[in-house]
Write a structure and sequence with these properties.
alpha+beta, 4 strands, 62% helix, elongated
Length: 223
């Protein structure tokens, strides 16, 4: 019932071969794992939403809200719509488009146990490679990518942000172009001075959106 250091030392000495063998086996296993496991690198890009003063911020929007609904246009699709931009950044569409454009399916499916598919590649990328964290207090978002090659991790993090900007910018250009064409047709059908002035104001705002979208790469997010 009693045990002292002398007895413990004798016990260890009697079992020195077993203890040594266990240490060698587990030490060798740990070394093998350490040398054969590829290191994972972490790349981060911090972005902030780009805000523009447009119809969606008030003022003219309050005056023309009913009119825009009446004529059937949807304003505020520019970078001022932070919710829309965040939704694109976190969407499955963004990752899917990035994988397709850069032909990443073979690279992402090297160790896959199932036949490679775009759906599985997007799921694995969003769950195991990409992390998006939003800091509402600071007003910034962190886009992080983890991969075994540091250069690839950095390229993917930046590339996803650039693609998000492109998708949002393209949508803004398409919406503004379609709205301007529609509003011009409405102008041709009305002679009411007040209504025409209101339509001109909306066209002015849509033209501003079109100008900003065509002239700025960092349209919705700035790194």
């Amino acid at each position: 019932e009693e045990f002292d250091l002398t007895a413990l030392s004798r016990l260890i000495w009697r079992n020195k071969l077993l203890i040594g063998l266990v240490a060698i086996v587990f030490g060798g296993g740990a070394a093998a794992i350490a040398f054969t496991t590829a290191p994972v690198f972490h790349a981060e890009a911090t972005i902030a939403a780009v805000h523009e003063k447009d119809l969606s911020t008030g003022g003219l929007a309050n005056q023309l809200g009913a009119l825009t609904s009446l004529v059937g246009v949807n304003l505020g699709q520019a970078s001022g719509n932070v919710q829309t931009s965040d939704a694109v950044l976190e969407s499955r569409l963004l990752v899917e488009e990035y994988i397709k454009r850069n032909d990443l399916l073979p690279l992402l499916s090297i160790n896959a146990q199932k036949p490679p598919t775009l759906w599985l590649a997007v799921r694995d990328f969003k769950q195991g490679v990409l992390t998006i964290r939003k800091d509402t207090r600071k007003g910034v978002t962190t886009v992080a990518v983890e991969w075994t090659d540091p250069a690839i991790a950095a390229r993917w993090a930046n590339g996803l942000i650039h693609l998000a900007n492109e998708l949002i910018r393209t949508r803004a250009i398409d919406d503004a172009t379609r709205n301007i064409a529609y509003l011009n047709r409405q102008l041709e059908q009305t002679n009411a001075i007040e209504l025409r002035q209101a339509l001109y104001d909306i066209i002015k705002n849509e033209t501003k959106t079109l100008m900003l979208a065509n002239g700025r790469d960092d349209y919705a997010f700035e790194i």
